[in-house]
Amino acid sequence: MALEPVAPADEPSLGELFAAASRDLSTVIQAEIDLAKAEVGAQVGKVAAGAGAFGGAAFLGLFAFQLFSFGFAYGLAKAGLPLWAAFLIAGGAYLLVAGLLALVGISALKRVGPPERTIRSAQQTVAVLKNRGKSAAPARPGI
Fold first, then answer.
1. What pLDDT is attached to residue 64?
2. 118: which residues sit within 8 A by CB, 6+ positions away?
3. Residues 6+ apart with CB under 8 A from 121
4. How far is the C-alpha of 81 from the C-alpha of 63, rounded, in Å?
5. Which residues, other chains included, contact 79 with Cβ-Cβ below 8 Å and sequence gap of 6+?
6. Are 88 and 71 in contact (CB under 8 A)?
7. Is 128 exposed, middle or buried (0-12, 13-18, 19+ CB in 10 A)?
8. Which positions ≥6 away from 43 have C-beta within 8 Å?
9. 112 phi/psi in degrees, rounded to 5
10. What does the pLDDT look like over 58-83, one tens digit per residue?
């Protein structure tokens, strides 16, 4: 009578192991997606602030262009200082504010970066899966 190796009753079957691994991998992937969404959502506010500043700069730049245009036209027509000088001073003020808003917009957009926590977490997950695959199947002698 030959003895056959019997697996202990408390060890899961290959199918159960595969189902658990598949479920765990699905959970990890969903968690990575949720983390990426959270990080990108946090960055949206910074992008909106930068876009708003650029919009304000464009709006005020349009006013500055109109005022400089009127100032130049009145200056050529009158060749007198009071009216056109007032237009140029007002246009210069709008242009200064537009420049400041553009700098604020550039500064806000430079602070937006990639979702670093998600990238780091995904790299760790890949490393764990690679290491688990190398050490997951210990050899059993005699089988």
1. 86
2. 32, 35, 36, 39
3. 32, 35
4. 21
5. none
6. yes
7. exposed
8. 112, 113, 115
9. -80, 125
10. 999 888 888 777 776 676 566 666 67
As given in the structure block, the two tokens for residue 7 are: 């697996």
The DSSP secondary-structure symbol of 137 reads S
Question: Tokens in use for 140?
Answer: 């059993």
In degrees, rounded to 5, the angle at the alpha carbon of residue 22 between the alpha carbons of residues 143 and 19 is 55
Residue the block writes with tokens 């019997």: 6
CA–CA dist 143, 135 (Å, integer): 18
Exposure string of 11-24, with b = 16+ CB inside 10 Å and e = fewer, is: eeeeeeeeeeeeee
Using a CB cutoff of 8 Å and minimum separation of 24, what contacts does 6-11 make? none
**Overall pTM surpassing 0.85 (yes/no):** no
Asked whether 87 and 73 are in contact (CB, 8 A), the reply is no
